[in-house]
Protein 1
Amino acid sequence: MSFFDALIAATAPERAVFAAIPQIRDGLQGRISRETYVAYLAQAYHHVRHTVPLMQLTQGRLDDDHIRYRQALDDYIAEETGHEQWILNDIRAAGGDPDRTVRDGPQAATEIMVAYAYDYVSRIDPMGFFGMVFVLESVSIQLAGLGAEAVRGSLGLPASAFTYLVSHGALDQDHIVFLKGLLDGVGDAGDRAAITHMARRMFGLFGDVFRSVPHYVAAEAELSHAV
């Protein structure tokens, strides 16, 4: 079994728990309110803005035995730069306030997820970062491929409110193929263990980010406004 396939198998329990989160389940069916979608985007902004700094930190911590992975991060950095601004634009297009998003800061769950990633890369093993990449890209494909269209259809929001999700769906399809080749080249048992550990933790921590998003299904949101 390739390491990529082994990683999928090793994280199956965590992925099952993640998939059962109400905000995820209802979002994929288009059964969330505009408020929930905007709240999700706000938390996305507060972790996505750390993507490039985390990649740069990982690069700086990888030694010459991992030069292939340092070089791979050059491509990731080039593609991920500026994506946090896309999210702010989507928030505005969805009727939210991007300035308030920046001003209010992240929810505790988002702050903890980001802090854990910085800590693991800095203190334990920078190769673990690729476990985070595995989680975020596999999740974003699912959200973009199913959730974006479902939510747009149910809420009647413009396409300009979904540029981050839709663009990431296309990008991450290619990224997953690239990541599979990259991970299948990881031969060191310690590196594999670090990546697997980070992936397991990230499914839980990223799940907590979704759980922290105030959630009403669309019909409940309409009822609360009517009252």
Protein 2
Amino acid sequence: MKKIILLILISMIVLPGCSNENKKEHYPIYEGTLVFKTVENDKYKFLVLQNISKENLENGDLDNFIELAQDQSEASYYFVDKKDYESIEIEERVRITADFNQQESSPPIRTVVSIEKMDE
């Protein structure tokens, strides 16, 4: 009887620890339009806004884009790799999965986990 109780206790401790292996991270996903891209200190960076009119996109500059970003909760800079930087153009719509961490600035700076172009 003591062996059965001991086996049950060990199972209760060991099995729950093994079940966490299949948990996946649920990173936040953001959608928007790429309005500006730059390279600073070998780091590739996009500025993505949720909403922007065609007129603001065509006639805007970085200062205008940053001003628009102040009113958009999900507007952000994103660090991307060189391949994504070269393959995605300004004015394209993107869906970005970002890391949980972000640098506190206005707009914030996030790191891309994955990025894809969206069909318009």
Protein 3
Amino acid sequence: MHHDNKIPHGPHRGGLFALTPLLVFLASYLLVSLVAGDFYRMPVSVAFLAAAVYAVATTRDLPFARRIELFSAGASNGNVMLMIWIFILAGAFAESARSMGAVDATVNLTLHLLPDSLLPAGLFLASCFVSLAIGTSVGTIVALVPVAGGIAAETGSNAAWLTAIVAGGAFFGDNLSFISDTTIAATRTQECDLRDKFRVNIRIVAPAAVATLALYILTGEAVGGATATERIEWVRVVPYLLVLVTALCGMNVMKVLLLGILSSGLIGMAAGSFTALEWCSGMGRGITGMGELIIITMLAGGVLEMLRHNGGIDYLIGLMTHRIRGRRGAEASIAGLVCVANLCTANNTIAILTVGPIARKIADRFGIDRRRSASLLDTFSCFTQGLLPYGAQLLMAAGLTGLSPLEIIRYLYYPFIMGLCALLAIVLRYPRSVAGAPVAGAPAPKP
């Protein structure tokens, strides 16, 4: 492998030109859809392919073979490959659970436990609790979206709406959980304690969660009347219970999914739902169904690597921190930095790691409590990630339900309200206990 310090800088390195692959993607995805009059006509994979071809073609400071090598390194880095393995296992588990009747049994159980009017609120609370406990929005979506889809089919409700309820709640825990990678990244880059960050962060987003829950309680009547449910087959609920319990105990999400696949297969064969060969065929269908998602993830990783090489991310950071005035402006710059980085990377953890060191310098320079800067980084990254049609969470939810990410986004109330609450926290200097003074040991603000 070549080292970056041996790579010559091209004439456009670090300038606005370095960001043009992102513009090509946005133009391909959004403008073509607008011209066609249908936001579901343009595949995300094709838009990313156009951006990838353009990024490789315009990186002139390297030989063509080296450009391909650099793009491939980005498409296959550790974070990208980890997501791909999760997608593969999630596809196999989802189809195994569906084939052996786990989804139908779980839907029946849910309909027995909750009246129709409380199903949306119950789904949101379950998603918030599970994501807070397991620390992963993707894992929460894998576990609960099939249940939401089953409830939609059983009650005749809007599948995109119920899916969005689960996806929104998943970002609650992604933002707050002690074992969430975004929380860990935010606190490490800001050099503050997890518990201290949680105490500040929960005060910013709790109003958003309460408002969203109230909204779902008020709109619960939109859920159609449930069909009379059959007898609950508890044994078929076991795979989902196993997934939830092991995830709550802190087990790695890949091990959790493997246990879910194995339990679904064993119970399905024992109950006569399928043979061993049919089980394997079902897993194959589930994995194949994740094919576009895997391709998009790899293309996005490659485009990101080209952006980094050409200095696009560094240019954005410099541009957005050029004229900061006062603490509110500094906090707004931190929020803007992580939002833009998230748009470029489609990964909130990578976005936090990318701009975290810069955010810490801004916080120290303007006397912002590091617990607060960590909370802003985490909250605004989750807000942005929750609205990306090409983000892993919405792609996963869409893949599990057969919907378009854009169909789901229009019903994602919690990320919108969370972003609004975070913005008001900056404007109103809330919570005031940490809105003005840096933590002990941090440099004093400069004039």
Protein 4
Amino acid sequence: MNIALWIVAGVFAFGYVVGGIVKLRMPYEKYAAKLHWPEDFTPGNVRFMGVVEVLGGLGLVLPGLLDVAPVLVPIAASGMALYMAGAVTERIRRSEYKELLGDLVFLAAMLFIAWGRFGLEPF
């Protein structure tokens, strides 16, 4: 189970960090034109989401890898699960049901990591 938790955390941490960097680096107008959902948010909100994704992604792996406060891993996973619950809500509000599936996968993965690291395989 420990290996599965590490793999899931690593894969999704990579996804969050890359997605967050894209939100931080790509000009808002270009990003909004490409995806359309950012039109509901200000440029500052989208940048904040990028910061949350980068920090959350790093929080999924770095505390465990460095063995410095590893309890932060399930806390980061819980925080990212809440973040993804907000994304799911936004997808439902916008009737973007195809894209909703990806957000539900991320949400389920974060719940799996939080459940696994809080209870089954703590560090």
